[in-house]
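Q: Entry one of two.
A:
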Amino acid sequence: MTDLLRSIIQDAWPFWLISLIASLITITIIMLAAVGTMMLMVWLERRVVARMQDRLGPNRVGPAGLLQSIADGVKMFTKEDIVPRAADQWVHMLAPIVVVSPVVLIFAVVPWGRGVSPSDFGNGVLFVLAISSISAIGLMMAGWSSSNKFAMLGAMRAVAQLISYEIPAVLALLSAVIVSGSMQLARMPELQGGWPLVGTTLGGPDLGLGWFVFTPVGLVGFVIFFIAILAEGERTPFDIPEADSEIVAGHTTEYSGMKFALFYIGQYVLNFVLSMVATVVFLGGWQGPLLAQLAIGNLAPLGGLLSLVYMLIKVWGLFFVMIWLRGALPRLRVDQLMDFAWKLLLPIALINLFSAALWVTINLWGSSPAWTIKVIIPVVSIDLLGWLETASPIVRQITALIVTAALNIAAIRWVLAINRRTEDEEPEEAMLDVLEQRVA
């Protein structure tokens, strides 16, 4: 944005003023995009879930009910802001701000298309992980300041859930960082061109389909990360922090008007922006067919527009899956939710991290003394891995695919086997065993 304004204004204004105006324009665009996206997401979810449940959904305000979210926004603005007498007034007011602000900041480092990134930050993955965890503080502030037992229980559930699922999410992203060798989100789509499974190893025309999800490491990492963002965004079946049948509305029980709306906006915007991160890291971001061919000469603007379209199609596709799961799955119990994170996702994520290291090792074996180790069989004096040093890139790629796929499949089967309930044990008995272990 700064370069664009300098090309228009040139030297008429000082550089600091141009940079300030560019920053304000960028922030305004991000805020408008966040609010507009949230309103469209609410409308889409209402319509899709209604279709799944054989209902009509919103259809009165505007064409196909498109203006229903605006009507809801006006209603929130006009509702009275009720604060409990025993609540901590300042903390109660600041909690929704602490929840929403970090979520909007993530938009600053996520690329929307080829060459379309608000900030080309070198450690974008680290920034996303650090910023997204701040929301847990706001949730705890909301529950504690409300002076309400239901709100406090909901806040404790939310924080425990966020911490539990952030660890597998971090490990899933770390596997992508190891394979790509970069923490720069804007660069990751550039590394996912070429052909499925082999990327640019074969050469030839760039199909834009060398997405990380087509590899064994990327597929497992994507599934883990997507499940984790469902939990962090409190989507079904991980919506127990706001379980209305148990704790009214969780940490938002004592909120009304625009304070409640801020929590609502933060939740939907978090779902959208984490879907963007998943798309950039695992689904090729803005990569897609014909994009490389349109990046030449006068067709570059058309290629940029097509990259934006590819990005939005993938992101909205992930959000549609979230809606689909909401209409299909029941809510988990608290013990099931925690066990799923610590007993299933975490071990698989750790082994997938080892698979990512193997992937890099196989592809770089013999490229330098640091990546070369002689493994000699004593009896016959044969270097077990000597053939890998002279292997072609495509042979290395196929070897890495086979080894990591076999390791991940074996790991998943092993983790499922050790967590399987015995045949003679009823579900109630299994739950009692878990409770007894925790009490002990």
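Q: Entry two of two.
A:
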Amino acid sequence: MATLVASPQEIPGTEIIEVVQSRSPEFNWVFFIVVAAFHLGAVAALFTPFYWSSVVVFAVMWFFGQNVGVAISYHRQLTHRSFSTPKWLEYAMAICGTMALQGSPIYWVAVHRMHHQYTDKPGDPHSPRDGKWWSHMGWILHGSLHSETTTLSRYAPDLQHDRFYQWLAVWHWLPLTLTGAALFCGGTVLGGWKLGLSWVIWGVFLRIAVGFHTTWLVNSATHLWGTRRFKTRDDSTNNWWVALLTGGEGWHNNHHAHPVSASHGMAWWELDFNYWGIQLLALLGLARNVRVMRPHGTSGDRTNPL
């Protein structure tokens, strides 16, 4: 496994164009309708027959959508280039990311790079300094970025110049749609339409609704509550319960201090399942140039009480 010491992030061939988040007078009705529909679908899990196989479907879809797709692919590989893989694997993991319904790779990466540029300062897409609700969800409903897609993509020129990601920017909803259809058909064949419907509710609607808030907690909770190992110029914290929910993304102060590091957990007790996945890929010869930072432990400058 090739492991490098993390250095300040530089994306080859990138030129950051300044775009900032602001409150838009236009309400994002499209996103609101989508989120509302998936939350209603999630509630339906309480009123449909329970099957243990549906729990298994939820767990498998969660692993590929949230852990492999959002955390390992969108965040650590595509945004920060913490490691590299063969292109076929990079693309496959990016498709997994679309299954979380959090936007295309270009959009997600651009917004996150903007967050690191303006963290907890004017222009940050989702800082709690602009309000707790804003940082969790309000920034998508009322923010200006949803109407600045073309300009925003300039924060991800490395992806914008890739024809696959250009295609996925338009068709990022397709993998989830096909997977939902496959779950319904597979469940119907094995146990009737009620089982097929249950697989869709648990594997798509409930998983995505919970996944929305799990990702948004990184934007909100880890800038509000937790401990700080590093004296970063922002409010980022290490939050253990967000880390457990996300597989390691909650060690957010570590991440903001060393954003290129593939490992966010920097102590033995800071469990980072997503990094374990990257290590597994490296062990199999599928990940290389894995960048890690293992600093000596230091006392934090502040603890934000829960």
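A: Comment on entry two: Confidence is low (pLDDT under 50) at residues 1-16, 297-306. Residues 52-79 form the longest helix (28 residues).
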